[in-house]
Amino acid sequence: MMHMTFYWGRYVTILFDSWKTDSWLSYALSLLACLVVSIFYQYLENRRIRLKLFTAGIPSSTAAPEIETPLLRRKLAGERARLGVKVAGSVLFGVSSAIGYLLMLAVMSFNGGVFLAIVLGLAIGHFIFRNEGEAEASVVVDSSCACA
């Protein structure tokens, strides 16, 4: 039976019928997995923002100083490079969206521990990867996920 309100307990089904917890150890490992995936979600979002900053020509605060190479810059400005960056950005967006929706569905298990693990993971990931300064704030990043 699916819960329709938040509950606290070690018996939870997360995303799949095969991912059921029946002991405190399996519950703790499941919460740890939710925490790690939430942190990884923020890491992917950071990589996507960095790629967007790179394509916009805005220097990253963590990037190495740019070396002036006019001949290489012309080559990077070619159609193939732009297409590769667009494909990479689209793949990052797709994977990030999929993980975001899976995290949302995991929260919809209505287990309090799962909810706290995911929110804590998102907060830790934001603190580690996405709290780096004003350069990020100047870029509008499109995201279809509610937890972005």
Automatic annotation (TrEMBL):
Q: Where in the cell is it found?
A: Membrane
Q: Where this protein primarily resides, as one coarse class?
A: membrane
Keywords linked to the UniProt accession: Copper, Copper transport, Ion transport, Membrane, Transmembrane, Transmembrane helix, Transport
Decide whether keyword Transport is in the record: yes
Q: How does it sit in the membrane?
A: Multi-pass membrane protein
> Membrane-crossing residues?
24-44, 83-104, 110-129
Q: Does the keyword Transport apply?
A: yes
Database matches in Pfam families: Ctr (PF04145)
Checking InterPro entries in the record gives: Cop_transporter
The entry assigns this protein to a family as follows: Belongs to the copper transporter (Ctr) (TC 1.A.56) family. SLC31A subfamily.
What name is this protein filed under? Copper transport protein
Q: What is the lineage of its organism?
A: Eukaryota, Viridiplantae, Streptophyta, Embryophyta, Tracheophyta
